[in-house]
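Lab notebook, page 48
Experiment: co-folding of the full assembly
Goal: obtain a model of how the components sit together before planning crosslinking
Operator: M.T.
Materials (sequences as entered):
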Amino acid sequence: MVNGTRLGVGVLLAALFGAPAFLPPFYVYLIALILVTGLLATSLNLVLGFGGLYQFHHAVFYGIGAYTLAIGITKLHWPAWVAFLAGPAAAALAGLLIGLVCVRLERLYFGMLQLSLGSFVWIVALRWYPVTGGDNGLHGIPLPAGLKPLGGAYLFILTTVVASLLVLWAVVRSPFGLTLQAIRDNPQRCQVVGIQVRAHQLAAMVLAALFAGVAGVLYVTLERSVFPNMLSWVLSLEILVMCLLGGWFTFPGPLLGAALVVTLRTFAGRYTEYWTLILGVLLILLIFFLPEGILGTLRARHAQKAPEPAPQPAPAGDVHG
Amino acid sequence: MDNLLLAEGLYKAFGGFPALRGATLEVQETEVVAVIGPNGAGKTTLFHLITGVLQPDRGRVTFQGREITRWPAYRRCALGIGRTFQIANVFPRLRVFDNVQVAVLSRHRKTFHLALPASRFAMRETWAILEHVGLADKAHHPAGALSHGDQRILEIAIALASRPKLLVLDEPTAGMSPEETAATLRLLSRLNREEGLTVLFCEHDMEVVFAAAHRIVVMHHGRTVVQGSPEEVRRHPEVQAAYLGSADA
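Observation: model returned without errors.
Model output:
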């Protein structure tokens, strides 16, 4: 089973790295968009599915990452590499500031407060014309020569997304990731075993915002534009649906959700302007029929068929205690 | 014997309703102390004040001579006060193993560790606790799928992972079958005997109380009214009239 998964991931990676060689540009572009959005959804799921936080306005950190890169290059004339690093850093800082306010509240109140703070950032992006370009956004952002052809941008995006996912996967499996899931399941119990719940939630928010910022920077690499819709709550809702659809208690769930939603949005957009209506119907169906998402439901079925293996004896490779 | 825990003159009201009106409680090291009393007597509130889930309006709590009245729960845990709850209070989506491991990681202050997988930490200690309480064969089950009795045992295992000096249990055998109750009592008395764990618990089942406790504290209307050995409490006329009734015969 585990080896099968590894083989599958290997084949998928080989296919992704080879894609520009045999796919037409439109599909290369579509895969790049799925990768960027998938990283964004996975970063959200660190706090949503693994942390149990109602992060209702995650797109804000994506937008801040993208705008920081765009403004840094076009208005402040930073070197490209500085702007590329500043994007995720600014997103993480925003995660820290918004997080400091929000983790004082719980559950739905956390989500509502975040929506209002996020909407404030969105309004700034929408109205501050001299800096953000207002409702037009900023376009034709000059990037290093290697990133200009689609193939170059694609490889940069693919490599960065894979590296980021590896880091997020390590975080989920680490003691911090385990603690985060325990906080999701039962914050009160965590406090009584000595865990500082809010400090862990805040750290998770900063990490999630950092990787949302990475996704934002990658989006600019692909599109060479930024616009205020990148920080809108509609996008936040879309990535929330991706997590729920794919399976928010699984690691690859948001990636699958992103692949499905982005593909659907791309092709539905050719026939209708009412994409958000389709999204709404999808959300309703999900809540009623797949509350654990596609991968969560599959995993539950699998677990019913094959019970877990017997426990292992204490292994020798124990680092601490 | 040293005075491990001392709670003096605790008052606590919820929206004007006084849940505690001058509760005083003393626990010596390596003692097993039971708190009894009718529903609404303030037992759970008293335990919340001792473990830091709530803070009193008046009164003080000292542990090993140190005043901890206003300390948050996580600091009291580090000091050596462990806790289980009235309702099964575990991490339902995590495996049984992870439930205990997270508490061990917390004691080792490793919960912010990001780089290595959790499976590299505290494995031996977690397995030892699971074997100690008899849950090792269910280590890979999701905690939410355990029977009620096993979830209560798992709670004790989580509390033990913080290596408490004092373990505070809120109705540890509520909802258990007679066999599970007997097994839980055996576990608690073994921990007390072999490891010198001090135990403070409240309980409705008088048989459990008289079988396990060295000393019994009776609460009524938010006050601690009688304290003494099981024999003394059993003979006390007020207690007989109010709580034991004719069942004492």
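Interpretation: Residues 142 and 238 of chain A are 29 Å apart (CA to CA).
Next step: discuss with group before ordering constructs.
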